Amino acid sequence: METIELGDLSIAVTRKDIKNVHLSVHPPDGRVTLAVPSVTRLEVARAYAISKLHWIREQQRKLAEQARETPRQFVTRESHYLWGRRYLMTVEGRDTKPSVKLDHKRIVLTVRPGSDAAKRAEVIHDWHKALLHEVLPSLIKKWERKLDVMVSGYFLQRMKTKWGSCNHEAGHIRLNTELVKKPKDLLEYVVVHEMAHLIEPTHSERFISILDMQFPTWREARAELNELPLAADVWNE
Hints:
This protein has helices at residues 42-51, 53-65, 117-147, 184-196, 205-214, 218-227, 232-235, and strands at 2-6, 9-16, 22-26, 31-37, 79-82, 85-93, 99-103, 106-111, 153-157, 164-167, 172-176. It is an alpha/beta fold and 237 residues long.
């Protein structure tokens, strides 16, 4: 991978089988990448990056000012989000197997007395994964039909800099467990985005046209997703 250095700014350059350049500023820390057609000379890519320097700085500024969730302690009356809605947490100490349930607008977390914040966080994370497992199989099946692809498997994990990823060769997708906090239509956008990579591995014009045809509101979904608060326990670790 080549790099363009502009003062304190470092831009990672990748060459792909595409017609146009694609400049991206990635959350959470404003990392910059530039995808260029394979035949592009590095000095041409550098000139393009210089022409976009103001835009890059503006995107990095927005990311720096983007709201961050304060670190969660998983205590009573603390706010937590699920599918885009705010809930208050109630913590109950019982000498029984830890569990989580929704009760109206409350998330009731039951843990053994003396459980620390790390243990409570682990219980909540396992619950988040279970909720995602409830909705993802039908969502994937829906888009397998629409996109005419087959997902060999999906995986859930905390991811620091991505909402999802796709292993084109293995045919599986990987999703950020933080998506359980976002509205379900944004989860669907990420699923479609990663599944579209089973057709086109790169962010080429062909990939964009697939999204335009199959999920016309993908740009709005991407913008909304990237404007929502970043989770302190994921992005800043």
